[in-house]
Amino acid sequence: MTTSFAPLTVAIGDLVPHPANVRSNAPETYDPENIAHLKASIAVLGLLQPLLVQKLDGKYAVLAGGRRHAALKELVADKATKEFTAKTNVDCRLVPEDCDVTTALSLAENITQAPMNAIDEFEAFARMMEVDGQTPETIAKTFGTTVAAVKGRLRYGLIHPDIRAAARGKVITLDTMKAFAEHPSQEAQREVFEALTKDGGYLQAYTVRQALKSRGVQVSDDIGAFVRADYEARGGAVAADLLEEHSVLEDAALVETILLEKLGAAAEEARTRLGFAWADAMVRYDYATMADYGRVYPGPIEPDEAAQKRVDEITAELEKLQLEMEDEGLEDGAYNALYDRVDALEEEARDLQEAYSAEDLARSGVIASWSGGQVTLHVGLVRPEDTVKKEGARGSSASPTGEEAPDAGEITYPASLAEDLKTERAMALGAAMALHPEATLDLTLFKLVSDVLASGMSVTQAIKIDARKEYRSHAKMDEIDETSLEQVAAAHDALDLSWLDDTRAPADQFAAFRALEAGEKAKLVAYATASTTQSCFARDRQRDSLMHAFEIEIMPDIRAHWTPNAALFNRFKKAWLLKILGEDLGLAQEAVTLASSSKKEIVAFCDKLFAEPFATLTDTQRAAVAAWCPPMMQTAGVACDEAEPTVETPEPDSEVAQAA
C-alpha cells in the first residue's frame, strides 16, 4: 500500500506525529518496553520499512510508522548510538496533502504491524465513515475482514469520549465500555456513566446494560419492531445509531403504552369472537401472579345439522390424508404439508364439537401478553374474585359494594411495592445461586435434561435454559441495598473469561471453553443461571416443590444477601413501621416513643437499626432484627399461601395500638 507514494528521505529531526495516526491517543503503545526491540533492530539493521509521511505545517508528519518514529527518537537521544542524530535521513513515502484516506492508510499500516488497541480500531473505522465517506463494505474489503466485524467496531467508535477515555485509563474494562453501545445517544451514555460512578462504585457491563434499558427500546428488538410505526406516528423520539438496527426508541413509557394498547386490542378481538366476559393485557404473563386465577375449558356439545355435515366431511378427508401420509416415498416437504393440513382439520373439527358453557363465558376472560416475539392469548381465565363467588369460599361482605372491608390494622402492599420486592428477592436469589455454583450447576443440568427427556409439565418455571438474561425492572434501583449486586459482581470477577473473545471464530472460542477446568465451568453455569432466574415471591411448595426446596438449601436466610434500608421503609406507611417495630421486632417501647415523631424520623431510626443493630438490644430483639424481612420475601419453610401478611391487629387497649 505504501509503494504508490513518492519516495524521499527526511531528517529525523523534521519528523513529527500526525494527528490522524490511529495510535496517537494510545500512549501505552509507546512505552519504552514496547519499542525496545524496534530500537535494537533499527540500530543494527537500519530502518527496513519506510515511514509514511505527509507535509504538515512545514514538517513531515508521520502518518504510519509511529512506533518506528518513536524508536528513531530514542536512538537520537541515546549517546551510545552516534550514527543516529537529528540530521540523520531516513527513507519515507510521501502522501499528497489532498489525500482524503489518511485514516485508512494509517489504519492499514498499523493492522499489518503490532496488534492495535481495540479502541483505536473503533475510532478509526468511525472516522473513515464520517470523514472519508467510507461504508462498512468498502472498509471490510480494504482490510480483508468481514462486514460484521467492521460493524461491530463502528458501534463502539461512537461511545462517549469520556467513557472511551475511562477505558483507555483502565478505570473501566473494555467489556464495560462496549456495554454503553447499547444506546446510540452519547448524552444517555454520559448520564448513565455519571450516575453509576458518582459514588466511586465498581462499574459492571451488566449494570450498564440494565440502566440503559430504561432509556428506550432498540428498533431491532421484537417489541421495537412491533410498535415502531405507531410510535413514530405519535412523534416518539428515535435516537439514530450509525447502523439502523441499533437505533433506539427513546420513550420507553410510550413504547409500553402502545404495546399494551395493541395487546389490549388483540385481547378484545378474541373476547368478542369467543364470547368471553372480559379482556385484559399485560406485557409479560406473570405465572406467579396468575397462579390464583382459575381456568375453564370448552366441553363437548352436540353439533347442529350444518356442523355435523362439516364434521363428516372432515372425517372423510382425514382418512384420505392418512393414507397419503403412509406412502414411504413421500418427500419431506410434501409430508410436512399433509401434516399441517391434518392438524388444521382436526382443530376445526374440535371447535365444531366443543364449546364453553354460557356460565363459564359469563365469568371468564382472555389476557393477551407478549411472548417469544409475538402476541400470545391466554383464554378461559377466571379471576380470583369470580372463583370465590362461585365456590362460596368467603362469607358475605359487610361492605355495601359487596367487597370485603380490609382489616384496618393489616399491612397491604401496593402493586408497585410488591413488584419491587419480588425483584429484590430475585436479586438475592441470584446472589445465593452465584455463591453456590455446584448446587446451581446440578439444578441447571437437571432442568435441561428433564425438560428434554421428560414428558408433561416442566419441573420448574423459575429458570430459563435459553441463556437470556432476565430483565428486572425496579422503580428505585439506585436506592436498594446493593449486597446482592456486590456478591454477583464478585462472582463475575472470579470467572475465567479467557475463552470469550469476539475477535476469534466461534469454534475457537468453544474449543477454549471446553478446555476449562470443571470448577470454572461450574462457576460460569451458576452465574448464567443466576442471571436468568425470574422474579417472584416465596415459592409454593405444592406448585413448585423443586425450587421451594432448592431455595431453602442455598438461601435459608435472605438477609445474607439483602438488608432492608431507608428506601424500603420510606414506602411503608407510618402505622406499618410502628407495627413492625412493636410487634415483629419486640421494640414496643420504642414504637410508643416514636409514635409522635414524623415518618421521616421513624424511617431514619429503622434504617440505622437494620444497618447496625443497637448495642442496647436484647438477644431476642437482636435476633428479630437480624431475621426480619417482608413475609413474601422469606424462604425457609414459607409457602405462598403462608407468605401473605397476616399480622394480627393489636388489641385497642395496647400501647402500640394506641400509639399507631
Name the features.
ParB-like partition protein; 14 strands; disordered C terminus; 660 residues; 50% helix; alpha+beta; 28 helices; Conserved hypothetical protein from pyrococcus furiosus pfu- 392566-001, ParB domain
Report on this structure.
It holds the Pfam family ParB_N. InterPro entries: Chromosome_partition/occlusion, ParB/Sulfiredoxin_sf, ParB_N. This protein has 660 residues and is an alpha+beta fold. Among the domains are: 107 residues, Conserved hypothetical protein from pyrococcus furiosus pfu- 392566-001, ParB domain; 124 residues, no CATH class; 143 residues, no CATH class; 68 residues, no CATH class. The protein contains 28 helices and 14 strands. The strands form 4 sheets. The chain has a 5-stranded mixed sheet. A 4-stranded mixed sheet has the order 9-13-14-10. Strand 3 and strand 4 form a beta hairpin. Helix 1 packs across helix 2, helix 11 crosses helix 12 and helix 13 runs antiparallel to helix 14. The longest helix has 23 residues. The termini are far apart.
Quickly describe the structure:
This protein has 660 residues and is α+β, with helices and mostly antiparallel strands. Among the domains are: 6-112, Conserved hypothetical protein from pyrococcus furiosus pfu- 392566-001, ParB domain (Alpha-Beta Complex), CATH 3.90.1530.30; 259-382, no CATH class; 415-557, no CATH class; 566-633, no CATH class. The chain has 28 helices and 14 strands.
